[in-house]
Amino acid sequence: MNYKIAVIKGDGIGPEVVDSAVEVLQSIGKKYNHTFEFEEVLAGGIAYDAYGTTLPEKTLEVANNSDAVLLGAVGGPKWDDLPGDQRPEAALLGLRKGLGLYANLRPAILFDSLADACPLRPEIVEGGLDVLVVRELTGGLYFGEKGYKETEDMGKAAYDVLIYSEKEIERITRVAFDMAQKRGKVLTSVDKANILESSRLWRKTVERIAKEYPDVSLNHLYVDNAAMQLVRNPKQFDVIVTENMFGDILSDEASMITGSIGMLPSASLGENNKGMYEPVHGSAPDIAGQGKANPIATIMSVAMMLKYSFNLSEEAENIETAVRKALDDGHRTSDIATKDEKVLSTKEMTQIILGNI
Ligand SMILES: NC(=O)C1=CN([C@@H]2O[C@H](COP(=O)(O)OP(=O)(O)OC[C@H]3O[C@@H](n4cnc5c(N)ncnc54)[C@H](O)[C@@H]3O)[C@@H](O)[C@H]2O)C=CC1
Ligand SMILES: CC(C)CC(=O)C(=O)O
Ligand SMILES: [Mg+2]
């Protein structure tokens, strides 16, 4: 089969980790006789420097006309002083909204051989950890009205509106229940219903949809407690469903279950099979250009692409097995190395994984 993939490398370590993932896809293509056709387009700071806009129309058009999108990361100090709607991060929101990708799957799985890299205590880690965060991706605070106004008593003020419709909550809830049905049949909905009106609607809607899934056990946690429970007792979680900003924060926290944010992949999905696949981490300006970024989050993201957008489960498993073997054989990038281990570069880790495919 022939698959068209839009490639958006972005900024910082984005190009480094995307190059690794593209090599992995090429190798899978050769092995299983698929043609992956890559079209590179720009978004983020690099697009701003080239065209004066972080999300050129062509980028959205190519993304829309592709079977899937592979993205690295956007942003960095060079563009931090741009107005909010012109920042690289706004381009990412534009892509997610423009492609209708409302469901963000972020699976935090601890590979057995990385137990030492996980900062949680051995008795918490023992027996493995596997939590799926299902994050609503096109609503909430990041997309609500925002702006500045003068207040009478406090002067200049800035605001961001947090708004959710029942429809937005229903569709992400269904995705999460469907996932839970295929996994451990436990769903935790995370909100702040003791304070926020949008969270009260969230909880009521989740309760209503739950009636369609009697085989899944549902519980609710406030986000502050959920953040604490994720490190105190992560085994209580199977699937977590939550709104956009809570999911952004909780998934970075959940990345420590895997040992490093450099390990956590993601899939962003909408109504059809088209998805955008990207590591959960950002552009990591502190290590950009040094060739030491962990490419595994992005490589595992293309495994998710094969599974969710192309229905190629065997090929996806091949990548997962290749990554697992690299780790079992003791290969480590700096973020997952413990004291005495030899540290590999991005390219060296990629070569090891390619050798295992
Ligand atoms: N999806 C995206 O494009 C995202 C973009 N950002 C942007 O990225 C920039 C940097 O944001 P930060 O808050 O520093 O978050 P970050 O995720 O880029 O980095 C946080 C820490 O994790 C480390 N790290 C991240 N990925 C790694 C990898 N693959 N291997 C090894 N270590 C890794 C970094 O070196 C850093 O110490 C900002 O401009 C931010 O807005 C942040 C998050 C997501
Ligand atoms: C717009 C992004 C920078 C938000 C983010 O951190 C993420 O999606 O993980
Ligand atoms: Mg984030």
From TrEMBL:
Keyword Membrane: no
GO molecular function annotations of the record: 3-isopropylmalate dehydrogenase activity; magnesium ion binding; NAD binding
Catalyzed reaction equations: (2R,3S)-3-isopropylmalate + NAD(+) = 4-methyl-2-oxopentanoate + CO2 + NADH
Record: residues binding substrate: R96, R106, R135, D224
Pathway where it operates: Amino-acid biosynthesis; L-leucine biosynthesis; L-leucine from 3-methyl-2-oxobutanoate: step 3/4
Sites where the protein binds Mg(2+): D224, D248, D252
Pfam short name (any one): Iso_dh
Top-tier EC class: oxidoreductase
Positions with a binding annotation for NAD(+): 76-89, 282-294
E.C. designation(s): 1.1.1.85
Keyword terms: Amino-acid biosynthesis, Branched-chain amino acid biosynthesis, Cytoplasm, Leucine biosynthesis, Magnesium, Manganese, Metal-binding, NAD, Oxidoreductase
GO annotation (BP), single: L-leucine biosynthetic process
Cofactor: Mn(2+); Mg(2+)
Subcellular localization: Cytoplasm
Site (Important for catalysis): Y142, K192
Gene Ontology cellular component annotations, sorted alphabetically: cytosol
Domain Isopropylmalate dehydrogenase-like: residue ranges: 4-353
Note on cofactor: Binds 1 Mg(2+) or Mn(2+) ion per subunit.
Entry-linked SUPFAM superfamilies: Isocitrate/Isopropylmalate dehydrogenase-like
HAMAP family in alphabetical order: LeuB_type1
Oligomeric and partner information: Homodimer.
Family: Belongs to the isocitrate and isopropylmalate dehydrogenases family. LeuB type 1 subfamily.
Function: Catalyzes the oxidation of 3-carboxy-2-hydroxy-4-methylpentanoate (3-isopropylmalate) to 3-carboxy-4-methyl-2-oxopentanoate. The product decarboxylates to 4-methyl-2 oxopentanoate.
Entry protein name: 3-isopropylmalate dehydrogenase
